[in-house]
Amino acid sequence: MKKKNLVKNTTKIESPDWVILGTGRVGRTLLLLADKLGVEVAFSWSKSRSIDDLGKANEHLHYIGELPKSADYTNRIVFISVVDDAISIVASQLAEKLNSAACVIHLSGLLTSAVLRNAGVERPCASMHPVVAVSDPHLALELLPTIFWSIEGDDEAREIGKNVLAGVQVEPVVIAPETKPLYHAAAVFSAGHIISLIDAAISVAMEAGLNRSDARRMLLPLAHSALNNLDNKTTVKALTGPLSRGDQDVIQVHKKALEGLNSEKPKAIYDILNAYMAQRIQSQD
To answer: Taking the mean position of all CA atoms in its chain, how far away is CA 177?
Structure first.
């Protein structure tokens, strides 16, 4: 997929000033985005992190340490970009101040906007989530136009969130709040669990005599090529290997070899994935 260039595909947007509470990966990306969209950031906050590496995007008041309870939140869009367990804490401790905001949006993929309402926030609330596994906010900024975003919450807050993303030509998909746990689990399957699967594959290759470096060099290009097949094929059509060919003899050889390992887990993973995809192949017949 060809990446869009955010600099060329950014539209200045009319927006109230932003407040960004939490300057981890997503929060720092929002600061960079505000700079690109020409939006003023009134202030940001982090429990312990400076933002000196963000260039022009750090040219605003940045609080570090205690929550900025005396700051002015009036008519501002407040983004809460902290870890899931802290969203309710931040919202409840600032609820009185947040009730003067234009809206409050958190960035969790798992929690719904109800966590804000339950914390005492009475203004329009939403949750907005980018499905991306990038640790560098500068790279995340460049990827924003290609990233899938979800949004749920009050009508007014959803429209505000949509307006923000329209600046990078993204239309978020509205999802039902009760589906967020499954939505988030699907995202974990496609990112964190892929890393876990590659790690298991590396461990098996090392049992075959490769060192870790050579195992990575062998397996990562293979994984990339497999994922590239999904650009224009269904998962069943993109599948390669003995299962896709119905080669049960090869599969049995693999299973026997895996049974000889000290750990039972690689064979268990192999069996589960084979059984799952065998059923998917049958369902396509």
So the answer is: 17
Percent of the chain predicted with pLDDT > 70: 96
Does residue 277 contact residue 239 with C-beta atoms inside 8 Å? yes
Q: Please state, in angstroms and rounded to a whole number, the distance separating the CA atoms of residues 105 and 89.
A: 14
Angle between helices 248-259 and 265-284 (to 10 degrees): 160
Tell me, letter by letter, the H, E, C secondary structure of 143-178: HHHHCEEEEEECHHHHHHHHHHHHCCCCCCEECCHH
pTM score: 0.87
Q: What are phi and psi of 208, to 5 degrees?
A: -85, 0
The dihedral sign for the CA sequence 92, 102, 71, 164:
positive
* Amino acid 132: pLDDT: 85
Q: In what order do the strands lie in the sheet containing 41-46?
A: 61-64, 41-46, 18-21, 77-80, 103-106, 125-131, 148-153, 173-174
